[in-house]
Design brief:
Butyryl-CoA Dehydrogenase, subunit A, domain 3; binds flavin-adenine dinucleotide; 10 strands; Butyryl-CoA Dehydrogenase, subunit A, domain 2
Length: 387
């Protein structure tokens, strides 16, 4: 067993941290307050090759391994969780499934603009009546000549307003209910209308949209993978995507820990720094331990993915533990800062708001427990629950 990062992994980690400390972290509070989507940050990340992590160089990417990508997401999210999720959705929910499931022609056509950061990617699965139970989606793709006409409405689509490429799921077989009969399509922004910007508890530098597709004509060249096998694309995408969300949670918790630790050394009560009160020491010890444990789970899942091993169980465990840990420990960070923690003078209240979503998207904690239970009990998926 080797817990050392490779020189290349350390280099990507240091490069991202340096960029995040300079270009992201100083603006994060303002973006949060003003709900700014920092589009130019993604152009700059693309210049560093970081919008095409894990993408081979022949498709315009940086050709890194998955663990390097995960290290990068942690660093971005430590500075701003909204930037973290924008890159996570763009990469693991759009670019990588196009690489995995696309034909040579689809890879050459759709991946380079994403990997070079010219297009942002959006993953459009969720609908008003189809979240955890994604297989009940209603967006329809009606046969039309040798292609389809797609119509439907999707909800809470990260990057929707700024995306150039959508990976969108629609029902090609109206006679089949549930996961079977769903297909995956690659759509351009021209096919998609953005109808609403969602208002959220946090993650204000990320954009979350309702979108509508009306009678969009697509040819066979827009079908990703086989007809009727789109649910497999979605589930396999989420298996990997969850490791990214776990890294996002880890980055948020790490940021909260660093602020809490520094504050505990500075703030005095009863004649000494609060770090010298045992109650505060115990909180800091738990924070440090839980962050370590989450990081080990996240890195193990990424390492398995790099080996080409199944990651369904390991990814679900990493996401479940890291996201619940981030919610708990960002709350503890507020507690360590006392009244200041509740104000916008310090960033911990933002971390707390941002951490909460990691327990919900790319599969809620309840769904992660179902996935883990199925794996340990050797059960098949009974329904279409977002596994
Ligand atoms: C900010 C944000 C960004 C998002 N980005 C995207 C995106 O880019 N693309 C996309 O497609 N979607 C996106 N989503 C949607 C997200 O993935 C869903 O919200 C999530 O999967 C949960 O679905 P739901 O909200 O419909 O909850 P529901 O499925 O209605 O669940 C409600 C509650 O019931 C529980 N529950 C449901 N089924 C079961 C069960 N079988 N057993 C036990 N408990 C259960 C859930 O865990 C939850 O606690 C985003 C959501 C948000 C808020």
């Amino acid at each position: 067993m080797d817990f050392e990062l490779s020189p290349e992994q350390r280099e990507i980690q240091a490069l991202t941290r340096e960029f995040a400390d300079r270009e992201i972290q100083p603006h994060a509070a303002t973006w949060d307050r003003e709900h700014t989507f920092p589009r130019d940050v993604f152009t700059k990340l693309a210049e560093l090759g970081l919008m095409g992590a894990c993408v081979p160089e022949e498709y315009g990417g940086a050709g890194t391994d998955f663990l390097s990508y995960i290290l990068m997401l942690e660093e971005l999210s430590r500075a701003d969780a909204g930037v973290g999720v924008t890159v996570a959705v763009h990469t693991s929910a759009v670019t990588l499934p196009l690489l995995t499931f696309g034909t040579d022609e689809q890879r050459s056509r759709f991946v380079p603009p994403l990997a070079r950061g010219e297009h942002l990617g959006a993953f459009a699965l969720t609908e008003a009546e189809a979240g955890s139970d994604a297989g009940s989606l209603r967006t329809r793709a009606e046969p039309d000549g040798d292609g389809w006409r797609i119509s439907g409405a999707k909800q809470w689509i990260t990057n929707g307003r700024y995306a150039g490429t959508f990976l969108l799921f629609a029902r090609t077989d109206a006679t089949t209910a549930g996961a079977r009969g769903v297909s995956a399509f690659v759509l351009d922004a021209d096919d998609v209308q953005v109808t609403r910007d969602e208002e959220k508890l946090g993650l204000h530098s990320s954009i979350t949209n309702d979108i509508v597709v009306e009678n969009a004509r697509v040819g066979r060249d827009r079908l990703l993978h086989e007809e009727g096998k789109g649910f497999r694309v979605a589930m396999q995408t989420l298996d990997g995507g969850r490791i990214g969300i776990a890294a996002q949670a880890l980055g948020i918790a790490q940021a909260a820990y660093e602020v809490a630790l520094a504050y505990a050394r500075e703030r005095h009560t009863f004649g000494k720094p609060i770090a010298e009160h045992q109650a505060i020491q115990q909180k800091l010890a738990d924070m440090s331990m839980e962050i370590d444990a989450a990081r080990l789970l996240v890195h193990r899942a990424a390492w398995l993915k790099d080996r080409g091993d199944p990651v369904t169980e390991a990814g679900a465990k990493a996401k479940l533990f890291a996201s619940e840990m981030a919610r708990r420990q960002t709350a503890e960070a507020i507690q360590i800062l006392g009244g200041y923690g509740y104000t916008k003078e310090f960033p911990v209240e933002r971390y707390y708001r941002d951490a909460k979503i990691t327990e919900i998207y790319e599969g809620t904690s309840e769904i992660q427990r179902i996935v883990i239970a199925r794996a340990i009990l050797g059960l098949q998926a009974a329904g279409a629950a977002r596994a």
